[in-house]
Design brief:
- The protein has about 850 residues and is α/β, with parallel strands linked by helices.
- The chain has an eight-stranded mixed beta sheet with strand order 10-19-18-12-15-16-17-11. Strands 20-21-22-23-24-25-26-27 form an eight-stranded parallel barrel, surrounded by eight helices.
């Protein structure tokens, strides 16, 4: 509790008007060491925005939120004006409580005002008392004036405010109200045109239908009634997070790292492949959710519902955190609103009540959210009616784990579309006609998911991890897919469409220039070269890599030969495939990664047991040792192909030196059998233990290639396909970059080179930072080759090194991306 001393209470003062009274109160606050003198001007400005008169002769002047830096110490002062000062149309102030708010401590004092405001006789007594101790005693809640012992029971306080402009009390501002109220021990009711709403229930507030500028009356009852009304008044004064009234302009929201300027509804996800697409959407796999109507075990159904609610809340928190970085607090607030819908007391109470009648958790939840969505959709106010879609979005997030998911065979229209899907597997690629797909948008996955890999290989913009509600979009509905920003724009305005068209044209012209210069080497402005090679997954792509300007193949995923068949490929079949690539590259290097298949892929002839966590099981080099027959056959084909061109062998998932020693021994044995010359061998650096043993491993290889996708998930302990964690499993996390730095340092000590073939190598930010850390070869998706080379030609290595060193000290991946954006923006300005 704040201490209120006699020196902070002044009795018997007078003032001719409110401004003079505020200056006098401010003078006492300055003398008490609570504020700097400039804060008084903010207190006067506050009165222009909203009156601070509470009633019964009490006013509480304080400054605007943006002036809090002028508060030196949290505290309050009290100045008594026995003759009164005209404060507002509602009355005269006799007791003025000046507030310097640096934290929430002052709210304890304000809560004590509840007892005074409830009792007019008590307020009159304080307005004329000659005893400062009586005022201190009343405001600190330590007693009451003797003549007030039999005061009537508290019935509530009220406050009048205006609904925020221009769109009224819709989801975002209503969420702000709920968040304020939940901080206090008080019940608040919002009254509007004969209707009332519980201020703790977002849906209840939405159903008021309060338009912008309409008058609202807030009533409060409870221990913190006065304090909650003060906090609500401050929240309404700054627009509840909406576009500002006059005072809002004084405190502009910090500009986010990447500003999104769309007028349509934004559905936030992760950027998986750059570019912008616009057109009708089409569901690759339309899901239908079915729920059991009745359930015998009510207790279990209550638990299932709570579990589903918790899972949906985790997804929404992650979306809010990610979108906050992209578009700022105002745009990200929609996900906070969705969170409040999950915690809506009315919906929860009714859902659990239906479960008690025998309905299942799924059926109960569906009935509740659908009935409310229908009620919202029927409202006259378009902005509020549109919130029905938000409620159905939230409802589906919760419903999905409670339902059976039914899937049918995908169908396609006869025109190009933005494809929507839960996620895409490698086998799904065969079902896609690139000429008919404008872009990809998925509910799940991450930036290193199958969808991301497919999108980059097809040069399609892609956004992933947007949540299951995307599958509810109507086929044919026009949307904009912004792969650069990682958002889907639903119901885009004409301005949005024009902007997207302009951006697509800019990208087209830039890519045309990049294509014209694709064979130029990636030499930085200060003369340092970085090789840019290709990641490929089938033999036919080798020639495409050369045509795109690739300086070789940095990663050939040989698994394509082993999948979707009933028996393993023989030596001759593999030899033919490898020779096809060697000849297409015509002297450029080819790095063949030996078989990397684990329990996450279904390969019948391998007879791999199901594993609880296949990414920590029998995969990579471990599988090669388990099935040495397959390993030796593959090595024979690779080494025979090396007789016709520069082939390098790369072992996957090496975790310790003894594994490397064993792999090299088997390789040497096979080499002698076929009579081939020695070839360069290297390892994928994708296991943290390998990085920590890098100095020892470097003595026995010709190169390292950093697989950032797996390294990231193993280092951060986050499944890169996880619907909630995907956005945080970012290869540009400083912890991952420190692993890259350790790898490069160890390689330099052994005089070997380091490449990178993970997803971030083809990401503009990743290309800059990896190069700056000393990675000398970047292996990327074929369509990304020209752009990565052009990017590196436009910067100096000195700049890249400076950014990379700064990135190592960052706290998260977003900060790293911000550093690179700053560098590229400066270079763009110079250009």
């Amino acid at each position: 509790m704040l201490s209120l001393t006699p020196s902070q209470v002044r009795l018997g003062w007078s003032a001719t008007n409110k401004a003079e009274a505020i200056r006098l109160v401010g003078q006492v606050m300055v003398e008490s060491g609570f504020i700097s003198p400039d804060y008084v001007d903010s207190m006067l400005k506050r009165e222009q925005v909203s009156a601070t008169f509470l009633g019964h002769g009490i006013a509480i002047p304080h400054g605007l939120p943006e002036a809090r830096h002028l508060v030196l110490q949290t505290g309050v002062v009290v100045v008594q004006f026995p003759a009164g000062v005209v404060w507002s149309e509602d009355g005269h102030a006799h007791l003025v409580v000046g507030i310097a708010a640096q934290s929430d401590e002052h709210l304890q004092v304000l809560a004590s005002l509840t007892g005074v405001l409830d009792d007019e006789a008590r307020a009159v007594a304080l307005a004329s008392t000659l005893d400062a101790a009586a005022i201190i005693q009343a405001l600190q809640g330590s007693g009451a004036l003797p003549e007030q012992q039999d005061a009537p029971a508290f019935e509530g306080l009220s406050l009048q405010v205006l609904s925020p402009s221009p769109d009224g009390l819709h989801a975002r501002p209503a969420t702000a109200v709920v968040e304020v109220v939940r901080r206090f021990r008080a019940d608040v009711t919002v009254h509007h045109e004969g209707r009332q709403a519980d201020a703790r229930s977002l849906l209840s507030l939405l159903r008021l239908g309060a338009r912008g500028g309409s008058r609202l009356t807030l009533t409060a009852a409870g221990d913190d009634a006065a304090a909650v009304l003060l906090a609500l008044q401050e929240a309404f004064d700054v627009g509840l997070g909406e576009e500002p009234p006059a005072a809002r302009a004084l405190a502009p929201e910090p500009v986010p790292a990447a500003v999104l300027d769309y007028e349509g509804t934004l559905v936030a996800g992760l950027s998986a492949s750059p570019g912008i697409a616009a057109g009708p959407v089409w569901a690759f796999q339309r899901e239908r959710l079915e729920v059991e109507e009745w359930a015998a075990d009510a207790a279990r159904e209550h638990q299932l519902l709570e579990s589903a609610l918790a899972g949906a809340a985790a997804e929404l928190r992650q979306l809010h955190e990610g979108f906050l970085q992209k578009a700022g607090a105002q745009r990200a607030a929609i996900f906070k609103a969705h969170l409040e819908l999950l915690d809506d007391p009315e919906m929860l109470r009714e859902s659990h009540g239906l479960i008690d009648t025998g309905l299942s958790a799924g059926a109960s939840w569906h009935r509740v959210f659908e009935s409310r969505a229908q009620a919202l959709a029927a409202m006259d106010e378009p902005v509020l009616a549109a919130r029905a879609a938000d409620l159905r979005d939230v409802g589906r997030r919760v419903l999905r784990p409670l339902a059976r998911v039914l899937e049918g065979e995908p169908t396609f229209p006869d025109h190009p579309v933005v494809l929507l899907a839960e996620d895409l597997t490698p086998s799904d690629t065969a079902k896609l006609d690139p000429a008919m797909v404008l872009g990809l948008c998925t509910a799940g996955g991450g930036t290193t998911s199958h969808t991301a890999i497919i999108a980059r290989s097809l040069d399609l913009p892609a956004v992933v991890a947007v949540g299951p509600s995307v599958l509810d979009l109507r086929n044919g509905q026009h949307c904009i897919l912004d792969g650069d920003a990682g958002v889907l724009v639903v119901r885009p305005s004409a301005r949005d469409r024009a902007k997207a068209a302009h951006q697509r044209e800019r990208i087209r012209l830039r890519r045309k220039q990049e294509q014209l210069e694709r064979y130029r080497p990636a030499i930085t402005l200060d003369g340092r070269r970085v090789e840019v090679a290709a990641n490929i997954s089938e033999a036919a792509e080798a020639g495409k890599a050369v045509d795109a300007g690739g300086e070789g193949v940095g990663l050939m995923r040989t698994e394509f030969l082993f999948l979707q068949r009933d028996e393993p490929p023989g030596e001759e079949e593999q030899l033919h495939a490898y020779l096809t690539m060697v000849r297409a590259l015509n002297g450029l290097p080819l790095i063949l990664r030996t078989l990397d298949i684990g329990g996450d892929k279904h390969v019948p002839y391998l007879s791999l047991p199901a594993e609880t966590n296949p990414f920590l099981g029998m995969r990579g080099i471990r599988l090669c040792f388990e099935r040495e027959d397959l390993f030796r056959t593959q090595l024979r084909a690779i080494l025979r192909a090396s007789m016709e061109g520069p082939v390098r062998i790369m072992y996957p998932m090496v975790a310790m030196p003894e594994e490397l020693a064993k792999a090299r021994a088997i390789t040497e044995s096979v080499r002698r059998e076929v009579g081939a010359d020695p070839v360069e061998t290297g390892i994928m650096m994708e296991v943290p233990s390998a990085v920590m043993m890098a100095e020892q491993l470097a003595r026995d290889v010709s190169f390292f290639s950093i697989g950032t996708n797996d390294l990231t998930q193993y280092l951060l302990a986050m499944d890169r396909q996880h619907p909630v964690l995907a956005s945080r499993a970012d290869g540009l996390h400083p912890a991952v970059l420190r692993m890259v730095d350790l790898t490069v340092r160890a390689a330099r000590k052994a005089d070997i080179w380091v490449g990178a073939c993970g997803g971030i190598a083809g990401d503009p930010s990743g290309a800059v930072v990896l190069s700056g850390l000393g990675v000398t070869e970047l292996s990327v998706a074929i369509p990304s080759i020209p752009a990565v080379k052009a990017l590196l030609r436009g910067i100096s290595m000195a700049d890249a090194e400076d950014v990379a060193q700064a990135a190592l000290e960052c706290g998260n991946a977003s900060e790293v991306r911000g550093l690179v954006r700053g560098l590229l923006a400066r270079k763009g300005a110079k250009a």
